[in-house]
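Hey, sorry to bother you again with one of my protein questions. A protein chain has come my way and I'm curious about its shape. It would help a lot if you went through both lines with me. I owe you a coffee for this, so here goes:
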Amino acid sequence: MSQTNTTKTAAPQPSAAPAVAARPSGWGGFVSLSTAMFKGFYRDWLSVSFSVLFPLFFIVIFGPVFSGGSSSAPKVIEVGDVAVIDSLPEPARAALEQAVAITPGTDLAAALDEVRKGDAGAAIEQQGDTLIVHYSSADQVTAASVQGIFNAFVNEANISASGVPPTYTLQTQQVEDESLKPIQFIAPGMIGYGIAIGAVFGAAMTLITWREKKLLRRLRLAPVSTATVVTSRVVVSVAVALAQLVLFVGISVLPFLGLKLSGAWYMAFPLVIAGTLAF
């Protein structure tokens, strides 16, 4: 009896599905993009120079230079004996020398030559009871200052010589706080400049450049949304602006610059954020 060999064929098994790369979460993509953009900022020396180094340089240089807060007194050459000045009491002489720097001289021609060259603001001489002030019209500001100072001085001398007490007196008061120093407005100006430059070149210009180079179109192929790309760029710009604020203020409050924080200084933080978002 013949036996029939039967062959059993195994049923084909379904093939395994190809592995699919996990799509990063919205937060993960946001963090990755923000980190990459921040690295791109500090690796771009042009952006760092204009937004950080230049403002910091101006603060460090101009802060000490203008720390005096006022211009120097004009130089006035006293030719020969000027009795009305030489006879002043010591306190009155000191008050006059706070307004002008009086230098003795003997030769009128040499003194006038210095005034013409701009080396001196004026030259004074006395002829009898007349005080003569020689000035140069080339420097209108100094000429007006010197004339005003000596006009007030002569009027005061006439009142003192008459022996009649003055009816009216003048008292001047500065409207700003007397502690105001140039660094108080130099630092905010440079902070505003640095933040504006950083915001323009950091966010606006970057997105425009990406659009022109078709990079935004490539980023849309990535597993992140367009909103995530734009938001990460803006967040990096705000973070850089806050870091600029902390750095600039931290340098400005050093003793050799002398920035004083007063009032609601902490409101600078929301102001910087609003200013950055405006760009």
Strands lie at 75-79, 101-105, 122-127, 130-135. The CA atoms of residues 7 and 13 lie 18 Å apart. The chain has a mean pLDDT of 78.
